[in-house]
């Protein structure tokens, strides 16, 4: 059993906040992605679990046991850094065997061989064991570093931005391969990243941190489709989510619709959203619309918003279209890459009200999103 | 503004090393936006520096507006330069930052005022003229930086990785602004970047460089959809193209030996293949159609990994050492272990010569 519980953890470096009152329950064998921008407190969180820094207050429990008094070496957690920290003078095998030959383990060589071979297979580097480190590609070094951490059979595996220095292309394939191996790890893992794709792809759950505070702890789908606040919504998705001011109109009994972008086009909200808004007595809202959910409408569509085309950026499979709405707001749409658009032309676009993410206008916190939106496909 | 020609342009730093830039030929039209794209060391920055006169020319010519500028002093070439770090003078207001170079060139005050007003209006920085750089957002700094490069009415504007130090969200916004600005003003512009999305989004045409050699010079969609070779195919596109070795077998199929991968050779692919027995195959993740039901042309496979990325789902199918990634719209039907059938449309398939890397064309 190796659950990790963080309770009310606070760490300040002089006056600079690392994390403040952070509580997080990580289940046994869970893969937890800790996501946030620079200065969010991600690495501080890892260091607190590893015992590299001591909290000002709060506790860290491993498998239900308070490990606050334990030295890093006695915690049985394994950390992999961004800069692999492999020994260049050793080959892959000796790098992986290194922790097991340490005074703490002093494992017999035949046992070591068994372990190293097993984990090298999991990491798909079993054909490279005799290679010197210099002869490895970046991806192979990555896997060697992960393998070396795994041979100790740690209770918890801590990964600090392991893919961030790889080039964009390699990052995509390494992320997929890491996810593929994930199922074979069977070890509680905490994975720190500032890349939202990594957090969503890899995490069973995602803890979103900013400026030392936990903003949301939820499944990747929830973080994306039901973000706890406008800030969280903006962290996930590229191009960034569109945020508009909007007003609510009540019409004919229980109908509530949204008006925005300076036009008199009421978007009727689905009943489940209406119910939540009624319960909360909300009047002022902001809405979030993801760029793939902005659709170009046929000309003359009465339910469509009007706009001029401000900018058109082809990206290959998709293109980013920036529209200037009647009230001067910019609206980003992600459209099929085969279409072309002419700057300053007039156009129309529509938004399915089921896909609106509704935030409180004052607190900017999440209020509602229809349950029958796309993610059940 | 003006057209810009590179004629067999060479940069040789040391005689015992291959040239940093090897006989580059480019014709850049008046008003065109060109991206020099490639990995570090490809020669793109060298080209930019030679154009600006910061680096000598080993061989060949640079022609701006019909005039060979090889031996023209940098300040007389008609080049406006905007670097990655803004280098605005912090103690000066935006107005004085814009006027600085004109003053240094002895332009009369009345003319300076006129040009500052003019450029500030073009670039929408009129409200910022009396502010100091510290009070500006990075987007505003970017505009002022470009305004300062343009105020001397250069023949060519050079942008050196102008967005690379910005965070992802701001980079996308600034990209849009630069694109819009160019559409409004159509100044001849060259951007140097290693970011393929930036090149795709901004440029009228992209020059892809590798090891000092021009790989392809064409519109973004041509470069994306019809890459000249394996390097270009792999360098452009996110998620990256799947590229892997296949062999033709006796049943007119392309196979990855020792795996389930077996793709029927269509007439189209057959024509591309010619007599070749082995070839490298390239398919973009969005060009592979994933289905639960087989067809005559589908390739069987077993899902090895699924990535749920919000509005996109990526399905990974392993064939030996290769993890083939396919992108689909959001779906929850595939799990590791699911049997799937992949369809490759002819128009989304690329075949590369295994020795030269050239893309095969019919």
What is shown here, in short?
The complex is a heterodimer of chains A (377) and B (362). Chain A has 377 residues and is an alpha+beta fold.
Topology:
The complex is a heterodimer of chains A (377) and B (362).
Chain A: E1 4-13, E2 16-26, E3 31-35, H1 42-50, E4 57-62, E5 65-66, E6 77-80, H2 92-101, H3 109-122, H4 138-150, E7 156-160, H5 168-185, E8 188-193, H6 196-202, E9 205-210, E10 213-218, H7 220-225, H8 230-235, E11 242-251, E12 255-260, E13 267-268, H9 271-280, E14 284-289, E15 294-296, E16 305-314, E17 318-325, E18 330-336, E19 346-351, E20 357-360, E21 366-368
Parallel strand pairs in A: 3-8, 3-9, 6-7, 7-8
Antiparallel strand pairs in A: 1-2, 1-4, 4-5, 9-10, 11-12, 11-14, 12-13, 14-20, 15-19, 16-17, 16-19, 17-18, 20-21
Helix pairs in contact in A: 2-3, 2-4, 3-4
Chain B: E1 4-11, E2 21-28, E3 33-37, H1 44-52, E4 59-64, E5 67-68, E6 79-82, H2 94-104, H3 109-122, H4 138-150, E7 156-160, H5 168-185, E8 189-193, H6 196-202, E9 205-210, E10 213-218, H7 220-225, H8 230-235, E11 242-248, E12 253-255, E13 262-264, H9 267-273, E14 278-283, E15 288-291, E16 299-309, E17 312-319, E18 322-329, E19 339-344, E20 349-352
Parallel strand pairs in B: 3-8, 3-9, 6-7, 7-8
Antiparallel strand pairs in B: 1-2, 1-4, 4-5, 9-10, 11-12, 11-14, 12-13, 14-20, 15-19, 16-17, 16-19, 17-18
Helix pairs in contact in B: 2-3, 2-4, 4-5
């Amino acid at each position: 059993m190796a659950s990790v519980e963080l309770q009310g953890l606070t760490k300040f470096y002089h006056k600079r906040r690392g994390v403040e009152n952070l509580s997080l329950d990580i289940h046994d064998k869970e893969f937890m992605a800790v996501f946030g921008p620079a200065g969010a407190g991600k690495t501080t969180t890892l260091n607190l679990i590893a015992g590299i820094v001591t909290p000002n207050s709060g506790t860290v429990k491993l498998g239900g046991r308070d490990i606050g008094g334990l030295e890093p070496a006695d915690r049985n957690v394994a950390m992999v850094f961004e800069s692999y920290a492999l020994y260049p003078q050793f080959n892959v095998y000796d790098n992986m065997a290194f922790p097991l030959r340490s005074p703490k383990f002093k494992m017999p060589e035949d046992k070591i061989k068994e372990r190293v071979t097993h984990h090298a297979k999991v990491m798909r580097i079993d054909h490279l064991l005799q290679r010197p480190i210099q002869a490895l590609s970046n991806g192979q070094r990555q896997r060697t570093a992960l393998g070396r951490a795994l041979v100790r059979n740690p209770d918890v595996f801590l990964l600090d931005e392991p893919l961030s220095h790889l080039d964009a292309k390699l990052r995509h394939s390494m992320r997929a391969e890491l996810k593929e191996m994930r199922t074979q790890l069977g070890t509680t893992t905490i994975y720190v990243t500032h890349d939202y794709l990594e957090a969503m792809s890899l995490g069973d759950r995602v803890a979103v941190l900013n400026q030392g505070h936990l903003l949301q702890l939820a499944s990747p789908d929830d973080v994306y489709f039901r973000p706890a606040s406008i800030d969280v919504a903006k962290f996930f998705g590229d191009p960034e989510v569109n945020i508009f001011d909007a007003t609510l109109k009540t019409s004919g009994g229980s109908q509530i619709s949204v008006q925005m972008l300076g036009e008199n086009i009421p978007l009727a909200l689905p009943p489940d959203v209406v119910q939540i808004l009624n319960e909360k007595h909300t009047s002022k809202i902001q809405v979030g619309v993801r760029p793939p959910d902005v659709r170009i409408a046929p000309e003359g569509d009465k339910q469509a918003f009007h706009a001029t085309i401000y900018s058109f950026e082809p990206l290959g499979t998709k293109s980013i279209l920036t529209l200037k709405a009647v009230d001067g707001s910019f609206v980003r749409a992600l459209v099929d890459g085969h279409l072309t658009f002419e700057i300053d032309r007039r156009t129309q676009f529509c938004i399915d009200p089921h896909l609106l993410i509704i935030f409180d206008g004052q607190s900017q916190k999440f209020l509602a999103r229809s349950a029958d939106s796309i993610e059940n496909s | 503004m003006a057209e810009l020609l590179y004629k067999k342009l060479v940069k040789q730093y040391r005689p015992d090393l291959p040239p940093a830039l090897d006989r580059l030929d480019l014709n850049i039209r008046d008003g065109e936006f060109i991206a020099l794209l490639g990995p570090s060391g490809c020669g793109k920055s060298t080209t930019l520096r030679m154009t600006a006169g910061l680096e000598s020319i080993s061989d060949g010519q640079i022609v701006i507006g019909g005039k060979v500028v090889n031996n023209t002093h940098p300040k007389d070439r008609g080049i406006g330069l905007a670097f990655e770090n803004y280098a605005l003078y912090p103690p000066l207001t935006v107005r004085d930052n814009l006027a600085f170079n004109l003053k240094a060139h002895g332009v009369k005050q009345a003319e300076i005022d006129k040009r500052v007003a003019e450029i500030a209006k073009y670039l929408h920085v009129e409200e910022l003229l009396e502010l100091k750089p510290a009070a500006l957002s990075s987007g505003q700094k970017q505009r002022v930086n470009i305004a300062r490069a343009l105020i001397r009415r250069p023949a060519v504007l050079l942008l050196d990785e102008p967005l690379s130090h910005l965070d992802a969200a701001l980079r996308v916004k600034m990209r849009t602004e630069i694109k819009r600005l160019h559409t409004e003003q159509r100044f001849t512009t060259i951007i140097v970047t290693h970011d393929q999305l930036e090149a795709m989004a901004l440029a009228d045409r992209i020059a892809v460089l590798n090891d000092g050699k021009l790989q392809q010079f064409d519109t973004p969609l041509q470069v994306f959809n019809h890459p000249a070779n394996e390097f270009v195919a792999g360098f452009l596109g996110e998620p990256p193209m799947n590229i892997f070795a296949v062999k033709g077998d006796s049943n007119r199929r392309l196979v990855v030996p020792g795996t389930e991968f077996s793709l029927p050779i269509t007439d189209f692919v057959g024509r591309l293949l010619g007599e070749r027995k082995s070839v490298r195959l390239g398919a973009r993740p969005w060009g592979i159609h994933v289905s639960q039901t087989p067809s005559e042309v589908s390739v069987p496979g077993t899902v090895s990994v699924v990535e749920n990325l919000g509005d996109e789902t990526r399905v990974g199918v392993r064939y030996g050492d290769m993890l083939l990634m396919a992108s689909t719209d959001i779906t929850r039907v595939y799990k590791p272990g699911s049997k799937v059938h992949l369809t490759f449309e002819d128009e989304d398939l690329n075949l590369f010569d295994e020795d030269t890397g050239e893309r095969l064309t019919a």
